[in-house]
Amino acid sequence: MTFTIYEFRVDGRLPENSQDAFCDMSMEEVPPGLILRGAVIDEPHLLGIINQLRVLGLTLVSVHPVTRPTRAARPPARTSPITVGARRAARRLARRTGGPRGCPD
User: Is the entire prediction scored with pTM above 0.85?
Assistant: First the structure.
């Protein structure tokens, strides 16, 4: 499976109960907000992540593909129980908010 590493810069912080909705993305707190980095498999996945940020009330400052890999960014793991739990949490959040899923299957 091919993927592209993206970096999302947002103003604000993720609520504690929403952090697992972003699958295997790394999170780095920087003033005044947060940087999320991770693998995005296709355009619907990208749009789902952007929608989840909007649903959570965060302001998206920028989003762009990362030209060089970072240590924290890695492709989605298919067999990790943590990933499965994060996908379930993303689905629950999407059902509550009416938005699309933020994680690929």
Answer: no
